[in-house]
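Hi R.,

Here's the chain you asked about this morning:
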Amino acid sequence: MYSSDQPRESQPLSSRIALITGASAGIGQHCALHFASLGAKLILNARREPNLAQLAQQLDDQYPTTDGSPRAIFVAGDAADQSTIDEMMASTTLLNPHASPQKHNSPDIVLVNAGRGLDGSVLTSDTTQWEEMVRTNLLGAARLIRTAGNALQKLQESRDWPEKSTDLVILGSTVGRHISPFSSMYGSTKFAVNSLAEAARRELGPKGVRVSLIEPGIVKSEFQQVAGYDQGKFDDLMDSISPVLSPMDIARTIGFIITQPPGMHVSDVVIRSTRQEYP
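And here is the predicted structure, written out as tokens:
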């Protein structure tokens, strides 16, 4: 069972609602666990409904709310579909039953995390997977950034800033900053996402919305298997730079960012294991 060093009496996210895509495993799942330990309510999204149902139940059991509302709900579906994004945003009312219907109702933390990898370069990668990867990693992220950015902007307009924070957190990658020839098609989507994040920061920051880009290095999770990397070679790489990052390392970093005072903004973080030289 997940446990946090955060004392139960100290819950800096107790008045906040977080939406997390890609929440069924890895970084997204650990962010859900960590945010709940800090007091947040959660809207969880991924394709795998059984995994989401199990995680939501775990969070409800481990962190019951005081107002009778769920700690977590889930919306299963493709995070790149606008209909799924709209359903996620609208489900905020299920976690905020006492909100005035006259006020804009939206999550105030949105984690753009859903994505997939792909082994190989522009010369060697499987071309049949290009379009799906670009759709998931780039177009899906762009749709959620657009929808969430507009919603968070309206939310800030409806209340007194800087009394409360709103956060749009976007998962990039070190290969979106330092391109690797061994994963250049995947890296190209993260280059694009990194650009979208910085552009969104410049557009939304003056309106009181914090946009943060997280660029992890190699993180040990099921991501590598889904991407189709050679497991033996990848194990050798991880052994050479061990200990590698865990999903909770990323979750703790994001938790630090979103619990800072509204006037403080950590806009860009690159996270590597100590021994990871490249990328």
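One quick note: The chain has one domain: 17-96+104-263.

Cheers,
M.
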